[in-house]
Design goal:
Blueprint: E1 4-10, H1 14-32, E2 37-40, H2 45-51, H3 57-65, E3 68-73, H4 88-98, E4 103-109, H5 122-125, E5 129-135, E6 147-150, E7 156-159, H6 166-182, E8 186-191, H7 197-209, E9 217-222, H8 223-232, E10 239-242, H9 244-257, E11 265-269, E12 275-279, H10 296-308, H11 313-328, E13 331-332, E14 342-343, H12 346-357
Parallel strand pairs: 1-2, 1-3, 3-12, 5-10, 8-9, 8-10, 13-14
Antiparallel strand pairs: 4-5, 4-11, 6-7, 11-12
Helix pairs in contact: 1-10, 1-12, 6-7, 8-9, 10-11, 11-12
Bound molecules: nicotinamide-adenine-dinucleotide.
Length: about 350
């Protein structure tokens, strides 16, 4: 089986954290004989500098032909003055859209060693392990018509369209149910069906799919309550499946529950399980070049890639365990530093994971 990975380090801290993730992947490859192949290219600001656009068509073609894409992060002040149509972030939107990466998986995992980093009480979040499955290419962020129009009375009106077709709900629902089946067999579908017809249909489709998954318990929750419950008692959730906008907001709450954005990986998958893997955080221009960025989110994104695209759950687990071991040793990057721990830089953290893995 081909295992071609396109590596897009991107901007800011992207190249720094990607170096560490590649070190870990290469160690895993040597140990588990995975046969991974890599090719590097540009996205975001680095692609604007090299190709004049945030995602060149040649890069997109390579990504389509590969099995997975591993990305760092995009953006930075250098490109902030550019027209919004060619800003670095457009490269990210384009790759997600063009590769039809409709399923965004964002785990919110709080390693017990980092419970003090959360803004919630440690007992509420220690051992937290939630998977948010967000629809990524539909809903109100893409619905037409949209725009700002002039009304007859001279006032301007902004408008968007919240739209979901049955097939779009079904394909993301299926990913949610399949994930729940591999975890604790509980899935909570989040909607606003008391107000929005589009989500009445969302709920109906999820309910009809539940017949195919008799072993999985499906519950429903309105999004306002879900936001509240995530802060009140987050460990009641296992898998959450929801639309694009609600997922955007809830996954950021999930990220904050864990206390550090430098720890959170993500995957965006197409219907064949091909995916784009990237840390949740951005390019952190404030610390870029200082060698202090936390590489663990990118290392954990690489582990997700091995699990979801390459079917190597055991290798992914070995990497995740190595990260746990390093935290047990008391090693911390600046963003997760706490009293009594030993602060390390980006490279030391990568080296420690490599050592724990090998
Ligand atoms: P950010 O995530 O880059 O940074 C927010 C804060 O978190 C900063 O203080 C930063 O130093 C810190 N941080 C982030 N990642 C870290 C890590 N691995 N280790 C230690 N600290 C870390 O968000 P921002 O400042 O709002 O955005 C900066 C740039 O990144 C912008 O150009 C934005 O558009 C872009 N961005 C890109 C992505 C992406 O590539 N997926 C996501 C969000 C933002």
């Amino acid at each position: 089986m081909s295992k071609k990975i396109i590596v897009l380090p991107g901007d800011g801290i992207g190249p720094e954290i990607m170096d560490e993730a590649l070190k870990v992947l290469k160690t895993a490859d040597a140990k588990f004989k995975l046969g991974l192949k890599y090719e590097e290219d540009c996205i975001g600001g680095s692609a604007i500098d090299k190709y004049g656009v945030p995602l060149a068509n040649t890069t997109l073609d390579k990504c389509r032909a590969a099995d997975a894409v591993l990305m760092g992060s995009v953006g930075g002040p250098k490109w902030d003055q550019l027209d919004s149509s060619i800003r670095p972030e457009k490269g990210l939107l384009k790759i997600r859209y063009e590769m039809e990466l409709f399923a965004n998986l964002r785990p919110a995992i709080l390693y017990p060693q980092l419970a003090a980093a959360s803004s919630l009480k440690p007992e509420l979040v220690a051992g937290l392990d939630i998977l948010i499955v967000r629809e990524l290419t539909g809903g109100i962020y893409f619905g037409e018509p949209r725009g700002i129009r002039l009304l007859e009375n001279g006032e301007r009106q902004g408008y968007n369209t919240y739209v979901y077709a049955e097939h779009e709900i079904e394909r993301i629902g299926r990913i949610g149910f399949e994930m729940a089946r591999k975890r604790s067999k509980k899935i909570c579908s989040v909607d606003k069906s008391n107000v929005l017809e589009a989500t009445v249909l969302w709920r109906e489709v999820l309910q009809s799919m539940a017949k195919d998954y008799p072993d999985v318990e499906l519950t429903h929750m309105y999004v306002d309550n879900a936001a509240m419950q995530l802060v009140r008692e987050p460990k009641q959730f296992d898998v959450i499946v929801t639309g694009n906008m609600f997922g955007d907001i809830l996954s950021d709450i999930g990220a904050m529950l864990t206390g550090s954005i430098g720890m959170l990986p993500s995957a965006s998958l197409d219907k064949n399980g091909k995916g784009l893997y990237e840390p949740v955080h951005g390019s952190a221009p404030d610390i870029a070049g200082k060698g202090i960025a936390n590489p663990l989110a990118t290392i954990l994104s690489a582990a997700m890639m091995l699990r979801y695209t390459f079917g190597q759950g055991n290798v992914a687990e070995a990497i995740e365990n190595a990260v746990g071991e390093v935290l047990d040793q008391g090693l911390r990057c600046a963003d997760i530093m706490s009293e009594g721990a030993k602060q390390v830089n980006t490279t030391d953290m990568g080296d420690a994971v490599v050592a724990a893995l090998s």
